[in-house]
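Methods: example folding runs. The two proteins below were folded one after another, and each record is reproduced exactly as written to the output file, sequence line first and structure-token line second.
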Amino acid sequence: MTYYDVIKNAMQMYNDRYKYAYFYGAKGQRLTNSVMDSLIAAEPKYFSRYSKSEIAIIKNFSFGKIGYDCSGFINAITHQRNYSTGYFEDCPIKTNPKEGVEGSCLYTTFGGTGRHIGIDIGKGFFLHMAKEGQSVTFGKISDYNWEKSGQIKNVDYRGAVK
């Protein structure tokens, strides 16, 4: 797989974003009530940040869509399996977001308070699955708290540009 394939796959998911919902712990499952309840039960500490009414809103938005969290999104576009920190740790070439090449993963710990991953789609922009109640979202790299950039293992970056 090339960096171009990674970007193309990410852009296709962005174009079809109405089909997808961010749901913590999801890795491509169809989000039914039982699947969402299982994901919530598996991560009670994470979901405790939401009230019962907020959970209901999240479930309503997500119902029937295909669920991904941030690493699930990267799994889908790279056809690999890993988690956010694992992707970055496995990168053979690591740098900062300003020096990263298109198709690279972008990584942040939010100053040590969490972990998140997205994909550099080139020209200073990125795609990611950000949070509950959203789908694939688009942003400007310099406007987000990305700390690091890394070339994803088993992706061919020949010809990629900054």
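Second run, written to the same file directly after the first:
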Amino acid sequence: GNVVQLYEVQTGDELRKIPEVTAGLVALLFSPDGKTLACRMGDGGVTLWDTDTAKERQRIKAPPRPADRAGQTVVFRAGGTDGPGLAFTPD
């Protein structure tokens, strides 16, 4: 469905749900402190959620694709602990 569910790893209990993920979920990545969940959408945008409240913190729209590159496809490769096309920086 269009819901992201967060679980307590040790008990398997569901903690909360993040509803209305409607733009085609491509990748999820927790911030190093575990307080933010980033989601890359199929339209190229990114949404950030607070993991304690399951409330949306910020939505970042994908930049428009330049007309001279309209036919190109971008391929994301994961490296280390990054989600495809996602990474958190120390700052």
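Comment on the second run: Confidence is low (pLDDT under 50) at residues 75-82.
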